[in-house]
Amino acid sequence: MSAIQKLLEVMARLRDREGGCPWDLEQDFSTIAPYTLEEAYEVADAIARGDLASLRGELGDLLFQVVFHARMAEEAGAFDFEEVAAGIADKMIRRHPHVFGSAGERRQGVVPGSWERIKAEERHDAAGADNPPGVLEGIALALPALKRAQKIGRRAAGVGFDWPESEGARLKIAEELAELDGARREGDPARVAEELGDLLFAVVNLARHFEVDAEQALTEANRKFERRFRRMEQAVLSEGKHLRELPVEVLEEYWQAAKRGERE
Fold it and tell me: Cα–Cα distance between 262 and 226 in angstroms, integer?
C-alpha cells in the first residue's frame, strides 16, 4: 500500500459514520478552511526558519487538509482525491508548454506573459462563451490583503490600466498621502481609514512596478524590526533599565545603536 493510499484510508476511517471520529464527522468545508490556512502558514514558517525537519511534518499536515476536503467532496458526490491530483497535473502540463508542449514550443522556450495568458484562457473556458469572466474574476477573497492587492494590480495592468513607468505609481503614493492628511485635518475616522487603505494599495502598486513581492517585503521588514527591537531591549535591560521608563529620545539612541550593531 502506498503512503498516499494509507492516508486516504485513514481519512475514510475518520469520516466513517459507524466507527469514525465524532469531531471529524462534524466538520464541513467552512469549518476546516481556517485549519487549512493555518497549516499553509506553518509550512511557510518552517521554510522561513530553515527547519527542514519541521517542514516535513508541516507539509504532511497541509496534505492532510487537502485529503480532508477531497473526502468531504467525495461524500457529496462532487469529486475525489484522484480527480484533485489529476486536475493539478493536467493544469501544470497545460501551463508549461515549454516543458511539455510540442517540439516547436519546447524550442521556443518560455514566452513572457504566457502563464497569465493561459490562466486567462482557463478562466474564459470555465465561464463559458456566453458568460465571459471579468478581468478580476477568480482572485481569492481569503488571500492576505497585500497579496490580493498585488494580484488585482497585476490583472488591471494586464489590460493596460496601469502607469507606463514606476514614477506614476510613486506620484500616486504622494497623492494618497496628501488625501490622508486632508482626512486627518477633517477629523473623520472613517475617511482616514479609507484614505489609509488607498495609500497602502498605492504602495503595493509601486512594489509591483519594482517587481517586489509586497507581502514578502513586509514580512522581511517585520523580521528586521523584531530583531532590532530585541537587540535594543536587551541593551536596555542589561543596564538595569526598563523600556517604559525611558523617553523616546533615549530609546532612539538605543535603536540606532542596535542598527549599527547589525552592520558591525
Answer: 13
CA–CA distance, 154 with 148 (Å, rounded to integer): 10
> Greatest CA separation found in the chain?
72
Residue pointed to by grid coordinates 499536515? 61
pTM attached to this predicted model = 0.65
- What is the number of alpha carbons within 13 Å of residue 116 lying toward its C-beta? 13
pLDDT at 88 (0 to 100): 95
Segment 2-59, tens digit of pLDDT: 999 999 999 999 999 999 999 999 999 999 999 999 999 999 999 988 999 999 999 9
At 30 the three-state DSSP class reads helix
Indicate if the alpha-carbon torsion angle 107, 111, 116, 118 is positive or negative.
negative
Per-position DSSP letters for 66-112, written without gaps between them: HHHHHHHHHHTTS--HHHHHHHHHHHHHHH-HHHHS-HHHHHH-PPT
Residues 6+ apart with CB under 8 A from 228: 255, 258, 259, 262
Of 258, 261, 154, the closest CA to residue 207 belongs to: 154
pLDDT tens for 111-143 read: 787 777 787 777 777 766 667 778 888 888 888
Give the Cα separation of 183 and 193 in Å (integer): 9
Query: How much is the average pLDDT of 96-119?
Result: 83
